[in-house]
């Protein structure tokens, strides 16, 4: 079972999400994988920015069984589903930041979000757009799980966003750069000039070169 220290660390992570402006009141949810087939998930109806230890649900990852009597977020199905499909994922964050959610509600959205190097490097050069399904529905969960088998970030139309990472820091970084890209899209409108395929390819060469040295 998760220790008191692990739960306190999870609460601190949730507060950082709120301080970063990624969630408001009860919007969004957070999960972190533990080593012993367990996962901590913000509880149903909880406010991520003000999360308290008594609102942290601990579940068995392989089965979804609640281990501490605290009901997890209604989106816990896709949190645990993504982690089951991708053993390297240690954190899943569902958020509703201002600019990214504004883009999620647009009738006409940008074709891509690669306005600066941070998006293709950290968020993903392609961000799947998931059609609107009722929050907490099996249909939404199945679409998120399917798309995140091969992507680290997705947009939920008329809803919000989901990112994952090897740990909390990587997931938070993705969410912040996702929001930055959407802020650029909203502020500039049609007056945007995304990176070209060649420019993104050059980034790939640079990053791969850096990581192999």
From TrEMBL:
UniProt cross-references to Pfam families, sorted A to Z: Aldolase_II
UniProt GO cellular component terms: cytosol
Biological process per Gene Ontology, one example term: pentose catabolic process
Keyword Lyase appears in the UniProt entry: yes
Entry protein name: Class II aldolase/adducin family protein
InterPro entries according to UniProt: Aldolase_class_II_sugar_metab, Aldolase_II/adducin_N, Aldolase_II/adducin_N_sf
Signal peptide range: none
Keyword entries, A-Z: Lyase, Metal-binding
GO molecular-function terms, A-Z: aldehyde-lyase activity; metal ion binding
Annotated transmembrane regions: none
Domain Class II aldolase/adducin N-terminal span(s) in chain numbering: 8-186
């Amino acid at each position: 079972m998760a220790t008191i220290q692990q739960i306190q660390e999870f609460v601190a992570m949730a507060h950082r999400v709120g301080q970063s402006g990624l969630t408001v009141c009860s919007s969004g949810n957070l999960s972190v994988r533990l080593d012993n087939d367990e996962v901590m998930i913000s509880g149903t109806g909880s406010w991520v920015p003000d999360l308290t230890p008594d609102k942290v649900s601990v579940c068995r990852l392989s089965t979804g069984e609640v281990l501490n009597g605290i009901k997890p977020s209604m989106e816990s199905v896709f949190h645990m589903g993504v982690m089951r499909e991708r053993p390297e994922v240690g954190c899943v964050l569902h958020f509703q930041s201002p600019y990214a959610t504004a883009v999620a509600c647009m009738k006409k959205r940008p074709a891509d979000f690669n306005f600066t190097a941070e998006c293709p490097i950290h968020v993903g050069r392609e961000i799947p757009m998931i059609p609107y399904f009722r929050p907490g529905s099996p249909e939404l969960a199945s679409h998120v799980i399917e798309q995140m088998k091969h992507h680290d970030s997705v947009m939920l139309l008329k809803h919000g966003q989901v990112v994952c990472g090897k740990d909390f820091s990587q997931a938070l970084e993705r969410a912040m750069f996702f929001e930055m890209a959407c802020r650029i899209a909203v502020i500039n409108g049609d007056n945007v000039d995304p990176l070209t395929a060649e420019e993104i390819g050059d980034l790939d060469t640079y990053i791969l070169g850096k990581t192999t040295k």
